[in-house]
Every structure is written in structure tokens, then in C-alpha cells.
């Protein structure tokens, strides 16, 4: 490191630094300012895109629940072309419509697609929970157990263990089902869910 002997030497060194590096500093400053403006623009752009997506979601959701074939097609198109939380939300609604019509394979596809668009752990947990129910309704207990294993949040564990118990019972694992229902009762859950788990636990205990 250079040692400065007096103030004039320091001033001369500063001058030399700017002569040698002035262009680089100016370019860096321009890039820095540009990056700030670019970041602000990008954030504004993302906000506008999300607001537009929200409006489209409202319109498509209304069409979907009209029960028309065009509404289903519009929802499927929106889900395929959108890559944000609203795509995941419309996927959940598409799955519900399919379940109501008894089209479980379509419901599973809608939920599987929605899972790839979910941006938060809470949304992913909800989708995995519903996916497990659909998979179990199709008799695929192993797939349901796999989906349940992906649920992380404590707030979903009571519902998750309820489905896990049903899946294990479907596979003939009474002891595993009993353990799952017991774990569900030990987790956070609504009073109605706790009553259901208690009923299931009582039933499996006498098997």
C-alpha cells in the first residue's frame, strides 16, 4: 500500500486515481443508476402484470362457474398460459369442477399442473392435500401418501393425517391408520375435524 508523506501527495494521488479510473467510475455510476431505475421499472411491471392477471382470473372464474364448456376451456387456457398464483387458484377451481362432475382424472391433472405454479408453501400444502384426496378417491393410496408427505406446515397436519390414515387403512395397515389418526388428534385442527378423527380412531381400534 502507498504511504502518503503529506497532503499534497494525497491530492496528487486522488487526481491520478480519477485520471486512471474516471471512465470506469462514470460507467459504474451510470450502470448503478440504471440498475435502480431498471429495478423500479421491473417491480412496477410485475405489479401491473399481477393486477392484470387478477382481473383475468375474476373473469375466467365467473365463466368457469357458469357451467359452460366455453368456461372450462377459458379456465384451462388461463391456467396453461399464466405462471403466477392466479394460475394455481384457477387450477384449484378446475379441480373442484371436475370432482363435482366425477371426473377425477381431470381433477388430478388440474391439481398437478397447479402445483407447478404455486409460489408459496401454504398454497403448495393446500394443493397437495386436495391432490391426495383425489388420488385416494381413485384408489391410488400410494400416490396419496406421497402427496401427503409433501405437506410441511403444522396448520395442515391434522387434515394431512386424516387422509394419511384413510390411505393406510385402504392398504390394510390398521396399526398405521390408528397412529395417523392419533397424530392428527394431537395436531392443530378444527373441532369438526377432531370429531371426525376421533370417530375414525374409535372405528379402527375395534378392527
Give an overview of the whole structure.
It is a single chain. The protein is mainly α and 207 residues long. It has helices spanning 7-64, 69-81, 85-100, 104-117, 121-137, 141-148, 157-170, 174-185, 191-205. Helix 2 (69-81) packs antiparallel against helix 3, helix 7 packs parallel to helix 9 and helix 8 packs antiparallel against helix 9 (191-205). The chain is elongated, with a radius of gyration of 28 Å. Mean pLDDT is 82; it is low at 1-11.
List strands and helices in order, with pairings.
Layout (H helix, E strand, L loop, with lengths): L6 H58 L4 H13 L3 H16 L3 H14 L3 H17 L3 H8 L8 H14 L3 H12 L5 H15 L2
Helix pairs in contact: 1-2, 1-3, 2-3, 3-4, 4-5, 5-6, 5-7, 6-7, 7-8, 7-9, 8-9
Protein name: Ancillary SecYEG translocon subunit
Membrane topology: Single-pass type II membrane protein
Pfam family, one: TPR_21
Characteristic terms for this protein:
disordered N terminus, 207 residues, mainly alpha
Amino acid at each position: 500500500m502507498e504511504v502518503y508523506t503529506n497532503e499534497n501527495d494525497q491530492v496528487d494521488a486522488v487526481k491520478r486515481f480519477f485520471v486512471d479510473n474516471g471512465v470506469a467510475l462514470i460507467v459504474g455510476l451510470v450502470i448503478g443508476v440504471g440498475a435502480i431505475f431498471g429495478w423500479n421499472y421491473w417491480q412496477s411491471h410485475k405489479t401491473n402484470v399481477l393486477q392484470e392477471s387478477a382481473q383475468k382470473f375474476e373473469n375466467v372464474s365467473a365463466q368457469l362457474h357458469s357451467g359452460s364448456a366455453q368456461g372450462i376451456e377459458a379456465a384451462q387456457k388461463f391456467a396453461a398460459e399464466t405462471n403466477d398464483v392466479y394460475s394455481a387458484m384457477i387450477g384449484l377451481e378446475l379441480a373442484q369442477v371436475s370432482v363435482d362432475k366425477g371426473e377425477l382424472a381431470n381433477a388430478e391433472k388440474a391439481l398437478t399442473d397447479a402445483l407447478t405454479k404455486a409460489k408459496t408453501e401454504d398454497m403448495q400444502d393446500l394443493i397437495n392435500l386436495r391432490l391426495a384426496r383425489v388420488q385416494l378417491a381413485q384408489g391410488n393410496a400410494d400416490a396419496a401418501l406421497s402427496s401427503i408427505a409433501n405437506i410441511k406446515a403444522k396448520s395442515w397436519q391434522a387434515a394431512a393425517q386424516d387422509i394419511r390414515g384413510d390411505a393406510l387403512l385402504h392398504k390394510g395397515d390398521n396399526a398405521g391408520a390408528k397412529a395417523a389418526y392419533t397424530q392428527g388428534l394431537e395436531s392443530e385442527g378444527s373441532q369438526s375435524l377432531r370429531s371426525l378423527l376421533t370417530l375414525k380412531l374409535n372405528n379402527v381400534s375395534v378392527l
